[in-house]
Amino acid sequence: MGKIQFPNLRALPAGPRWLAYGVLLLCAILVGGVITAYGGMLLVVLMWAVCMGGLCLLLHFTWQTVFPGQRVAQDKTFLRSWLAGSAVGVAVIAALVCYRQTVYSDDAINYFAKQTLLFGSFGQSGFYGIHVLLESLLTADYKMFMNLFISVPYLFTGRSINAFMVCYAITCFVPMWFALLMGAKYLAQQLPACHTALYYPLCMAVMVLWPMFLWPATHGMPDAFGLTFAAVIALLCADYRFETLPWPRLLAIFAATFALILTRRWYMFWILAFYAVYVLAVLVGAVRRKTLGSTLKHMLLFGVPSAVIIVGALLPTFKTILTTDYADIYGAYYGGGFGNNCLGQLRTQGLIWLVLCAAGLVWLLYCRSTRAQAIVAAAASLGAMVLFTRTQSLGDHQSLILAPFYLLMLFGLCAKLTQQKAKPWLRNAAAGVLAVFLVVNFGNALRLPGKNVQTLALSSESLDLTRRTDLAQMRAVTDFVLEHCTEEQTVYINMDSNGYSGTTFAYSDPAHPQLQTMILWESSVPSTHGFPTGIWTSEYVMVTDRVDEGGIVGPINAALRTQSPAAVHYEYVTEFPLDGITLYCYRRTARPDAEEADYFKQVFAEYDARWPEIFSQRIDEYMPVSYTHLRAHETRSNL
């Protein structure tokens, strides 16, 4: 058989040639439309391939730029340390999340819920999925960016939250460890020669056994993925002084910055602080070299268009950031200022960890070749912490904005302890002592009963291997919801204590994902949740006797468990004994009236004075028109 001969379009006259091009373009559009409309999950796979491919290219380019003439495969010690350390890291995360019979809730299920939404929207239609994805990337606080990297391995699992966490350990953290270990390699090249067979494994142990990293990693939060792009930015900027405009390097810096913003909003504090310090350092160097004019010109040629593109593409996000008073929103649980957060870091990291970081900082400052990098890293982290603590406190995962500084200092210490000029027995002993501390610090964070100590010397993080023993009791609650409500009806669960909340029940049964929309809840944070109108719209409301709880939960419990204007609109149905607490179920029997509305306004008067749009105004919006007009008339009469 002869070969198939395709027509040579270039040989056609101009008119027929452009007509043929148009037909081919139309066919491509039609095929793409069919795939988009009916092959939504195929699009998810393709986007995963593009994202992972782009990440690999970014890391490969960074390696080639920072270590010219070296191939990854040639540095076998680096490669073996990364692979072995990554295997240990993934195994630690998998063991922690799979051993615990834990039902995750609140922030721990945000990205799991995003993954469910991503698959659900693309499963419905490719066009709808793209709409949901773009809306998330452009406007949401919790964006679906990291979910794109998790999609394909998670697609072939049982779709549980434990499987979700193991998947992001593989697709997000393994590249992150590679990027951070590149930073360790770069640092080692600036310092006196070290014994890399000890140095690289120590650096990997610092990362994979770090309790502050492991807590969010084992509680449904892949936020540490952003450190991949922070490391790329730091590496590409380390020896770049804007003397020329190497556009491939600049494009990689731009891409890493854009990706870091998409990872988590609060990484922008680190971005702003790092670039401010970096630009200042470059300009000071330019003044010394007498090249200020050309350096400033190159900075503007790159910086202005980059800022315009990033702000333009993410305009809704930046608009939200600029118009939202985060200090007010987080005011109900803001821990208070820079000083208190420094003390918080002492508890979170432990005294020994911070002393080791200080020792690494002293060594890096002592060495002339690393002095500038140490100053920039320290100043950037200090600036990021000052900016962040003006609006809220550093929690377990938000503290990751300080991770570049902590890791750089500890990598410096590892390089000092493993110097080749040191006596082998002393070098091995020093490395062994550090390794023992890392293991002890990690082991203490497991919080095994009777096996851990409460001390400032070690991290206060709790990875908690306790298995829940109340899954049967929780199942009784969710079975009641499924049995007594349709998927269009809701049940409001009002609790936030003893390890329970509404989300605990909503996500406790993967076999019935409809519970995630059937169960309504608000936590005890009045500044972000406001008055829970779900107690008025739901078929059933479940409360406890914890009337003294702060925030929203306690007053709602009191409203139903005491003789109040709200209690008359509910009738008792049943109760569910849980671990150390009882959940009482009531049925809503009537719409709210003026007396009940006024009662809740009085109960939440303190919060309403500060956040009226989510308390009294929300109540007024829900109430019948006659009530709203009456209260408006009374207000005018009292003026």
Summarize the structure.
The chain has helices at residues 14-38, 40-66, 76-99, 110-124, 126-139, 145-155, 161-190, 196-208, 211-217, 226-238, 247-263, 267-289, 292-313, 315-323, 326-329, 337-349, 351-366, 368-388, 403-417, 424-445, 471-484, 502-506, 515-518, 526-529, 534-537, 553-561, 594-603, 605-610, 616-622, 625-637; strands at residues 491-493, 496-497, 500-501, 519-520, 540-543, 570-577, 582-588.
Strand order of the largest sheet: 4-1-5-7-6
Biggest sheet record: 5 strands, mixed
Classify the secondary structure makeup into a structural class.
mainly alpha
- The outline comes out as globular
Uncertain residue segments: 626-639
* Number of alpha- plus pi-helical segments: 30
N-end to C-end Cα span: 96 Å
Average pLDDT, all residues: 87
Would you write up a description of this structure?
- It is a single chain.
- This protein has 639 residues and is mainly alpha-helical.
- Helix content is 65%, strand content 4%.
- Residues 626-639 have low confidence and may be disordered.
